[in-house]
Amino acid sequence: MILDLKGVFEYEGFNRNVSYELDMSGFEDQSGGFPLKEPVIVNASLRNRAGVVGLHVETQSVYSTQCDRCCAPLNEQLSITFDNVLVRDAASEGDSGDLIKVEEDKFDLDEHVWTNVILNLPMKHLCSEACKGLCPKCGKNLNEGDCGCDNSDDSPFSVLKSLLQ
Ligand SMILES: [Zn+2]
Ligand SMILES: [Zn+2]
């Protein structure tokens, strides 16, 4: 969605709210998966307060991935909020990293949401903090019970031993 910001820049006190869904199912993560299958819900508001145009965006999405330890599928609810100040000319640049310069009063909200959602995606995914993961020997999910393998030899010598075998 491209926003026309002419009115927002020119009228103090201007408010505008935008709500829509953005399809981010084409986003591919580093492991080659497509974690944002469901449309991302976007609620954005524009406010001109004393000549300063603020953009507040809230997004809600479902992040489909798997547990880093046991590979169980996970669907995480993600809520991400970001605030920026929009400016018309470069003269106001340099004050803050939150400033965005807008060309010709046109602002690509889709691109802004896309970039910020990706920047704020969680790097770690665990089905639970206590997840025991998979047995390195037999691959059994240890959350479902012990497999009976002897995994006690995790001393530095076991690495050496495996090199000598
Ligand atoms: Zn897990
Ligand atoms: Zn095992």
Describe this structure in words.
The protein is an alpha+beta fold and 165 residues long. The protein folds into 2 domains: 2-131, no CATH class; 132-165, no CATH class. It contains 3 helices and 7 strands; from the N terminus they run βαββββββαα. The strands form 2 sheets. A 5-stranded mixed beta sheet has the order 2-3-4-5-6, covered by helices on one side. The radius of gyration is 24 Å and the shape is elongated. The mean pLDDT is 89. Bound molecules: zinc ion (ZN) (2 copies). The site of one zinc ion has 6 residues, from loops.
List keywords for this structure.
single chain, elongated, five-stranded mixed beta sheet, binds zinc ion, 165 residues, alpha+beta, two-stranded antiparallel sheet, 3 helices, 15% helix
Layout of helices and strands, plus pairs?
Blueprint: E1 2-4, H1 6-10, E2 15-22, E3 40-49, E4 52-66, E5 73-87, E6 99-101, E7 106-108, H2 109-119, H3 156-164
Bound molecules: zinc ion (ZN) (2 copies).
